[in-house]
Recover the amino acids of this structure.
C-alpha cells in the first residue's frame, strides 16, 4: 500500500510539472510519438519497397505525405527511416556521453597531470572539424554499416565539447565544503566522484546527452546525404539525397513532398529535443522541484 | 609573451595529432585504404610491382621502406605541402585544393563574421529589452536557429528563393558562359549573386548561438554595480548599452569563437554539396563517392590546418582585446 502511494505521489508530481511546463509536455509527447512510431512501424505499417501506388500523389488521408517517384508511400518511409535514425543517434549519443563523462570527470576530479593531458586531448579534438573527420573515418573503415561502429565513430569525434563542460562542472562542485569534508575523512577521490559529485551533475549530463543526440542526428543525416554511410533506402538523409538529386523535386513542384517530408520530420524532432533539453533541468534540479512539491 | 608561446605550442600539437590521425587511418588501420587499393589492383590483374608503384606515387609514401621511415616521409611531405596525387583526377591534390579553398574561405568567413556581428548586436538588444516582446521573438528565433540543421535552411532557401521567387541561381559559384573570371565588375557581381544563399545559410544557422550567449553574458553584466552607477550619473541609455555593457559582455562570447570556426568549416561540407558550390566541401563529398582517398585526406588536412590557423588568430586577437588572459 505504501509503495502504491509513493508511485501515486510521483505520478501526481509529474502531472503537476507537465501542467506548469507546456513546452516540456509538448516536447515529451512529440519525442514519445517518434519513439512509438519507430518501435511499432513494422507491426502497423506494411513495408512496400516496389511501389504499389501511382507516383507523385499529393498528400491525402491515405498517404499523409503523398507518394514518391516510384509510388511508395512517403509516410511509410519516414516511419521506417525513424528506426534507422533514432537507433543510430541513440547509440552515438550514448557513447559520446559515456566518453565525455569519463574524460571530463577524471580530468576534473584528479587535476594535475591527468587534467593537463586530458585537456590537451580535448582541445585537439575540439579544433578538428568533426563532420569532415567523421567523413574521412567512415569512408576509410570497412565497418561503417555496423551501428555500433558508426556510433563509436560519432562518439570519438564529438565527445570533446561535452567533456569540457562536464569537467568544469566537476571542478566547481569539487571546491564546495561538503566535498572538502569527505576529503578530510579520507574518502578516496573516485568514491567522492561517484557518490557525491555525479548525482548532483546528473541533470546536466542528461542535457549534454540530449545535445549530443541532436548533433548525432545532424551527422547521421549528413553522412547519409553525401553517401558515406552504406546505402539503406529508409534513412532520412538518403531520402533527401534521392529527392534532391534523382527526382525533379527542386526543379518543379512535382514530388516536392518527397523532399519536404524528411525535412519536416527532422525539424519537428530537433525542436522537440531542444524543448526537452531546455526544460529538463527544471524537472531534475531538486531545488527547483521543491517549488512544485510544496504547491 | 609566455601565453603566446603556449598558444602556438597548442596549435602545433593539434597539427601533429591531425597528421597522426591521417597516417593511422590510411596506413596502419586494419583494412586501410592503401592495402585496399593495392589488393584491388592485384585482383584486377595489375602486376604486384606496378600496383605498389602507383599507390606510392599517389600517396607519396614508399611502400617498400620500413614503416617508421614511411611515417617520417609522410610528415615531411605534408609539412612541405605536397599532399600526393588524386587517385581519380591524377593531378596533384594541392592543385585541386588551392582552386577550391578560396571559395570556401570566402563564403564561410563572410557567413561567420556576419552571424557573429548580427548575433552579438541582437543579443545585446535582447538582454537590454529582456522579457519584452522583441526579446521573446528573438529567443524563439535563436532557439530555432540552433536546433534546425543548416542543410534544412539550404533546401528551404532553394525552394523559396530559387524556385518560387526565382531571385538567385541554384548552383555553382559563377556563370562561366556569361562572365569571364578576373577582376571585373560583372564577374564580381555574378560571384556575389551566387554566394548570397550559401552565406545566408551560414548566417541563419549560426547567429542563434551567438545571440543566446551574448544575451546571457549581457544580462550578467547588467546586474553589476558599475552599470547602476553609470545610470545614476545620468549617462544616456545608448552609451551605457554600447560602451559599458556591450564591451564587457562581448569578451566571453568572442572567446568561444574558436570552437565555432571548426564547426562552421565542417558544416560547409553539406552546404556546398547542396548548392554545388565548388569549395572543398563539394570536393570532399565527390572524393567520398569516387573513393579518392588521397584527395579526401588532403582536403581534411587542409581544412583542419585552416581551422588551426584561424583559431590561433582568434586567440591572439582575443588577448589583444582582453589583456587579462595573458596574465592568467
Amino acid at each position: 500500500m505504501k509503495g502504491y502511494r509513493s508511485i501515486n505521489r510521483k505520478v501526481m508530481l509529474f502531472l503537476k510539472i507537465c501542467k506548469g511546463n507546456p513546452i516540456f509536455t509538448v516536447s515529451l509527447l512529440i519525442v514519445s510519438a517518434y519513439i512509438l512510431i519507430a518501435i511499432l512501424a513494422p507491426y502497423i505499417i506494411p513495408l512496400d519497397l516496389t511501389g504499389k501506388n501511382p507516383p507523385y500523389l499529393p498528400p491525402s488521408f491515405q498517404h499523409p505525405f503523398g507518394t514518391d517517384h516510384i509510388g511508395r508511400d512517403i509516410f511509410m518511409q519516414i516511419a521506417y527511416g525513424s528506426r534507422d535514425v533514432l537507433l543510430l543517434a541513440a547509440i552515438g549519443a550514448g557513447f559520446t556521453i559515456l566518453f565525455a563523462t569519463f574524460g571530463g570527470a577524471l580530468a576534473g576530479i584528479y587535476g594535475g597531470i591527468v587534467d593537463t593531458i586530458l585537456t590537451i586531448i580535448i582541445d585537439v579534438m575540439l579544433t578538428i572539424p568533426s563532420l569532415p573527420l567523421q567523413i574521412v573515418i567512415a569512408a576509410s573503415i570497412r565497418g561503417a554499416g555496423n551501428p555500433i561502429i558508426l556510433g563509436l565513430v560519432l562518439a570519438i569525434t564529438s565527445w570533446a565539447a561535452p567533456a569540457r563542460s562536464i569537467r568544469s562542472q566537476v571542478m566547481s562542485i569539487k571546491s564546495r565544503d561538503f566535498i572538502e569534508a569527505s576529503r578530510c575523512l579520507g574518502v578516496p577521490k573516485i568514491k567522492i566522484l561517484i557518490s557525491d559529485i555525479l548525482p548532483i551533475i546528473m541533470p546536466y549530463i542528461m542535457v549534454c546527452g540530449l545535445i549530443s543526440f541532436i548533433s548525432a542526428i545532424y551527422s547521421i543525416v549528413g553522412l547519409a546525404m553525401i553517401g558515406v554511410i552504406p546505402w539503406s533506402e529508409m534513412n532520412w538523409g538518403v531520402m533527401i539525397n534521392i529527392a534532391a538529386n534523382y527526382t525533379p523535386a527542386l526543379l518543379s513542384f512535382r514530388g516536392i513532398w518527397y523532399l519536404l517530408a524528411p525535412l519536416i520530420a527532422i525539424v519537428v524532432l530537433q525542436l522537440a529535443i531542444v524543448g526537452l533539453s531546455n526544460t529538463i533541468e527544471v524537472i531534475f534540479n531538486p531545488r527547483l522541484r521543491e517549488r512544485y512539491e510544496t504547491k | 609573451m609566455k601565453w603566446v608561446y603556449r598558444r602556438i605550442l597548442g596549435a602545433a600539437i593539434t597539427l601533429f595529432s591531425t597528421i597522426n590521425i591521417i597516417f593511422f587511418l590510411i596506413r596502419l588501420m586494419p583494412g586501410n585504404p592503401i592495402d585496399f587499393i593495392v589488393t584491388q589492383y592485384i585482383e584486377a590483374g595489375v602486376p604486384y610491382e606496378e600496383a605498389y608503384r602507383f599507390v606510392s606515387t599517389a600517396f607519396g609514401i614508399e611502400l617498400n621502406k620500413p614503416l617508421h621511415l614511411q611515417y617520417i616521409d609522410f610528415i615531411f611531405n605534408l609539412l612541405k605541402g605536397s599532399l600526393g596525387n588524386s587517385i581519380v583526377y591524377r593531378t596533384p591534390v594541392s592543385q585541386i585544393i588551392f582552386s577550391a579553398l578560396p571559395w570556401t574561405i570566402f563564403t564561410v568567413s563572410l557567413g561567420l563574421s556576419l552571424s557573429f556581428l548580427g548575433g552579438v548586436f541582437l543579443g545585446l538588444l535582447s538582454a537590454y529589452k529582456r522579457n519584452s516582446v522583441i526579446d521573446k521573438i528573438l529567443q524563439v528565433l535563436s532557439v530555432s536557429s540552433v536546433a534546425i540543421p543548416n542543410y534544412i535552411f539550404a533546401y528551404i532557401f532553394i525552394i523559396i528563393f530559387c524556385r518560387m521567387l526565382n531571385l538567385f541561381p541554384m548552383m555553382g559559384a559563377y556563370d562561366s558562359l556569361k562572365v569571364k573570371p578576373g577582376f571585373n565588375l560583372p564577374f564580381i557581381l555574378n560571384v556575389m549573386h551566387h554566394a548570397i544563399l550559401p552565406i545566408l545559410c551560414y548566417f541563419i544557422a549560426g547567429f542563434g548561438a551567438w545571440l543566446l550567449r551574448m544575451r546571457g553574458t549581457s544580462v550578467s553584466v547588467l546586474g553589476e554595480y558599475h552599470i547602476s552607477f553609470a545610470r545614476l550619473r545620468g549617462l544616456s541609455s545608448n552609451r551605457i548599452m554600447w560602451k559599458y555593457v556591450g564591451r564587457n559582455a562581448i569578451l566571453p562570447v568572442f572567446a568561444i569563437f574558436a570552437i565555432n570556426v571548426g564547426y562552421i568549416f565542417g558544416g560547409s561540407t553539406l552546404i556546398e554539396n547542396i548548392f554545388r558550390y565548388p569549395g572543398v566541401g563539394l570536393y570532399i563529398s565527390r572524393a567520398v563517392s569516387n573513393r579518392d582517398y588521397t584527395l579526401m585526406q588532403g582536403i581534411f588536412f587542409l581544412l583542419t590546418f585552416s581551422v588551426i590557423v584561424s583559431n590561433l588568430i582568434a586567440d591572439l586577437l582575443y588577448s589583444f582585446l582582453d589583456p587579462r588572459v595573458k596574465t592568467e
Observations:
- Residues 74-110 of chain A form the longest helix (37 residues).
- The two ends of chain A are 24 Å apart (CA to CA).
- Chain A touches chain B at residues 120, 123-124, 126-133, 135-137, 139-142, 161, 214, 217-218, 221-222, 225-228, 240, 244, 250-251, 253, 256, 259, 263, 266-267, 270-271, 273-274, 278 (CB under 8 Å).
- Chain A has one domain: 2-44+64-293.
